[in-house]
Amino acid sequence: MSAQTLSFAPDSQTTSGCLDAPVLRERGQREVFCGLTGIVWMHRKIQDAFFLIVGSRTCAHLMQSAAGVMIFAEPRFGTAIIDERDLAGLADANAELDRVVDRLLSRRPDIKLLFLVGSCPSEVIKLDLSRAAQRLSRQHMPAVRVLNYSGSGIETTFTQGEDACLASLVPELPPSTDPGVPQLLVVGALSDVVEDQFKRLFDELGLAPVAFLPPRKSSELPSVGESTRYLLAQPFLSDTGRALDQRGASHVPAAFPLGAEGTTLWLRAAADTFGISPALFEKVIAAPRARAERALENHRGALAGRRLFMFPDSQLEPPLARFLSREMGMSLIEVGTPYLNRQHLAEELALLPPGTRLSEGQDVDKQLDRCRADKPDLVLCGLGLANPLEAEGIATKWSIETVFTPIQGYEQAGDLAKIFARPLRRRQLLEV
């Protein structure tokens, strides 16, 4: 597949693809990180926020390892450790939490927004963090707003930590001051460089005002109301979408901004919603789209014709599969995802090749059996499965890398393709 064969016209979505395809639903043993992991990228995004995990030493070790924070650093997250006295009911957990928060805020006056993040241990002892957040907010407002959400790994996957965090912010968004003026809200944590790139494109399109959730500072919370049109930048924001719907905002259906095609379709959805002329749209995106296509061409030779198997991990799997199939020429064996939101993913499912095997949830032993039988060239999976599969001679790519790495937009399209081309090139060198 060459760059010239790609179609970005609206009629590229006329086929139903996998929109009505059957989905293999599995409910068994899963291999995923917990929602606490979302703090790794969220604490970098909201610059005056702090994420206080109410959990065990295991939670603290997980975050320290995942974030790679040195002991003398001043990160914007920490853990209020639940110990044996709390579990045994020998201490007042709420009084202990209040003491930890008071000490934290006295030491870190830069904190303006504090998230109390629930964990498996805090849920086991039935610690009501919602009431704790309300109590602490009353004590520390207006200097500090205190919110809460659950990062528990019980029946969730790790990207749902971001979803829960953003959903907790939605009730705090101020109402639109001018409900008659339509506004665009881009929802989902993007790296600052990607957000700036999108801002420039929206400005050139004449699309204003445009706001982003989450904002870089808690004092810059965007307004929301019936005139708000929200565009999802991430496919795993089901709870946040429902919360915005309840505030009167309207969802703009779109493919997600991965690759040249996905970014074009995502931007076009916004442009069409706000009545931007097709001529202006094509003029604005022509140069960055051309750069993206040239960057993709560098990696297409390594990926075209290769067979891909995707384990469920991040909920990014469907848009990644669309990108790798349509723009890089890969053949899809199975596209697994922890949860399939058909409403948010309708445009992506319509672009997947008919006959693609879709699976939702996980029964890891059964899925491993299918993977071995299919003999893929590349497997996208979580860290816990990668090393065993590599030992069996199967090339793998960690799915968490697609979350930690800036991959959205035209300028990152080549980096996204490189993520998947790298393990295949490495294996080819080793075989020589």
Describe this structure in words.
The chain is α/β, with parallel strands linked by helices and 432 residues long. The chain folds into three domains: 3-31 and 292-431, 3-Layer(aba) Sandwich (Rossmann fold); 35-156, Nitrogenase molybdenum iron protein domain (Rossmann fold), CATH 3.40.50; 183-278, 3-Layer(aba) Sandwich (Rossmann fold). It is 43% helix and 16% strand. The protein contains 17 helices and 14 strands. The strands form three sheets. Strands 1-12-11-10-13-14 form a six-stranded parallel beta sheet, with helices on both faces. Strands 3-2-4-5 form a four-stranded parallel beta sheet, sandwiched between helices. Helix 11 runs parallel beside helix 17. The longest helix is centred in the C-terminal third of the chain and has 26 residues, at 278-303. Residues 1-14 have low confidence and may be disordered.
